[in-house]
């Protein structure tokens, strides 16, 4: 259902007011727009993330939309311990409800979509699934497209009026993803009806592995922005909110909380220990000999921590150390731990 239709706007008025009234329809409704987000790790996110869910929610609220994200979960995965139940969002001040889980497949959903629709009564279901089917099973792109079709049919069996957003997969470097993504607009056009709209959401490109992701699949901050933008644009096409602003905002990458560093001097060495920020998987060590007036230099490889001993230091010289945290392949941009100063010397 296009949300603008609920206003009963005449054609002449619509021509005069255009998308402004259509976009504001959910904001003036008596009830908030209920949105169910179904997906895998890309949608759930991990410790230390904002998540694209956060960025979408912020955008919709900023557009004047009364929105209620719904679903049985509100957590992240702690990517360091591998445990679910983390709430280490970089900014927890948003509606965290969702129905996503790391490792979820179309062919292996935690709960059938019909059951979720029946329980949570969403107005819109946003789905981004399929990459695990393509990467970890023998599923073909055509087979996954069939799964997406069945997903829509099952959602409609629970609520014939529910709208569905089919999310294209951003990891186009994974085999089969491009063919699957190309099938979605055709599928959406075929399934779209007056009562139940089906549209697609595609993250604006380019989408680069190792930049928009911190490994082969999972979103960095810039990837979150791009996925949220694609979904926001799709919702705007339904009359919910406005398109995501262009140009897309530049956002800093890597962990956005600093590590907490301490150090102990030894004979020709310094023993470092630290507490990493949520989600960080390693840290680069930076050091300089201030006695000799050296500039900062970074070790060529990240260290998993939480301890490391710097050797071959000159006794009596003052050394400064700091850390630059990293999540996967993405190091924090211009964000460092506290600086510690160590003066090695003979131990008693």
Please, could you describe this protein's structure?
28% of the residues lie in helices and 22% in strands. The protein has helices at 11-17, 19-28, 41-44, 52-62, 113-120, 131-136, 141-158, 177-191, 221-237, and strands spanning 33-39, 67-70, 76-78, 83-86, 99-100, 124-128, 163-167, 198-201, 260-266, 269-275, 282-289, 297-298, 307-310, 319-327, 330-331, 340-342. It is elongated, with a radius of gyration of 24 Å. The chain has 2 domains: 3-237, 3-Layer(aba) Sandwich (Rossmann fold), CATH 3.40.50.1110; 260-342, Immunoglobulins (Immunoglobulin-like), CATH 2.60.40. The chain has 9 helices and 16 strands. It is α/β, with parallel strands linked by helices and 348 residues long. Strands 1, 2, 5, 6, 7 and 8 form a 6-stranded parallel beta sheet that branches. Helix 5 (113-120) runs parallel beside helix 7 (141-158). Mean pLDDT is 92; it is low at 5-29.
